[in-house]
Write a structure and sequence with these properties.
The structure is a homodimer of 174-residue chains. With 174 residues, chain A is mainly α. Chain A has eight helices and two strands; from the N terminus they run αααββααααα. The first copy, chain A, folds into two domains: 84 residues, Arc Repressor Mutant, subunit A, CATH 1.10.10; 89 residues. In chain A, strands 1-2 form a two-stranded antiparallel sheet. The longest helix of chain A is centred in the C-terminal third of the chain and has 26 residues. The radius of gyration of chain A is 22 Å and the shape is elongated. Chain A starts with a helix and ends with a helix. At the A-B interface, helix 1, helix 5, helix 6, helix 7 and helix 8 of A face helix 1, helix 5, helix 6, helix 7 and helix 8 of B. Chain A binds a DNA duplex (30 and 30 nucleotides) through helix 2 and helix 3.
Chain lengths: 174, 174
Amino acid sequence: MSVPLTLLGLLEREPSHGYDLKRDYDAFFGRGKPLPYGQVYSTLGRLARDGKVVAGEAEPGDGPERKRYVITEAGVTEFEHWLGEPVAPEPTLQSVLFTKVVLALLLGRDAEAYLDTQRAAHLRRMRELTELRRTGPLVDALLADHGLFHLEADLRWIDLTTARLDALAAEVRA
Amino acid sequence: MSVPLTLLGLLEREPSHGYDLKRDYDAFFGRGKPLPYGQVYSTLGRLARDGKVVAGEAEPGDGPERKRYVITEAGVTEFEHWLGEPVAPEPTLQSVLFTKVVLALLLGRDAEAYLDTQRAAHLRRMRELTELRRTGPLVDALLADHGLFHLEADLRWIDLTTARLDALAAEVRA
DNA sequence: CAGGGATATACACCGAGTGTATATCTCGCG
DNA sequence: CGCGAGATATACACTCGGTGTATATCCCTG
């Protein structure tokens, strides 16, 4: 999820060490997918190489030595620009669901059965997210809603595609 | 989009060369994002290394030399399994939209302005996709619908988040 | 027969992601 | 007192996916 820019944003808040950045990232954005340490330091290394941040000398603090990273002017500029720009909305028109359906049709497999199991998996996940939405704090609720809306979108597409399966098969085999 | 499995699927249809695989992939799945040659051959190399396909000797045909790739039993098994399994529905609960909103709030930027420009970008893209949906063949229409459904999902989330912005700001700063 | 376009593959490089190793400090417990 | 567990902190090696570029052959046209 655009880790370099996100770390840059956290550094814009205040200078920090890799370890703390990882904690912050996980607290704010890590829902169910914590940032691995390996990625933190390699990302910081690239940011430093490109002049977006500067790494301080290793300082013995309480605890092991650590480096303090500070964002640069170039880093701030880049981050501001990214934050202001909207995310490109569905630029590629690709989806694994579509891929599996077409491959199933191409190879004479049961595409409708696949769509059914996919629908079931989606419904299961929607029940989980509905529960999370109900019990969690606002941040979790918003993320659950985001997931739920997109799962609903998939469900609509699954139903639509199920209805069009014969026509799609004809067009694909042509 | 899971390129290795997709190529495996195309090879299950019939043995083929890298070049033709790229053409087939683009024709069926490449909508606006053709598969680069570099990725074709490196992927085939990995599939061959892992025993999912076997590469024939280079054959002089009409045209330059080419290698014919054939799927193996192991490859078929792997592909069948993948095709039957549903895609994991929204496992991570992460989204760039959410990230940008939270970072804007954390750093005292205008999150609502960002949400507005994002909404505008989405609406613009929805008009494009609506047109594609109207004029294109069924395959394009289905992909456009998939995109449209997900853009609508984002719009709902954008509106919801706009309405909750103050509460979210309070929770994030805490 | 020269050369442009289609066919076909190889290679080098980078970012992202994963796993593992390593070193230091703190604190509790016998 | 000292020793080991756990928290803190970074480095490194490796793989995959993705992008761009180079290279070689054949075909067709003028």
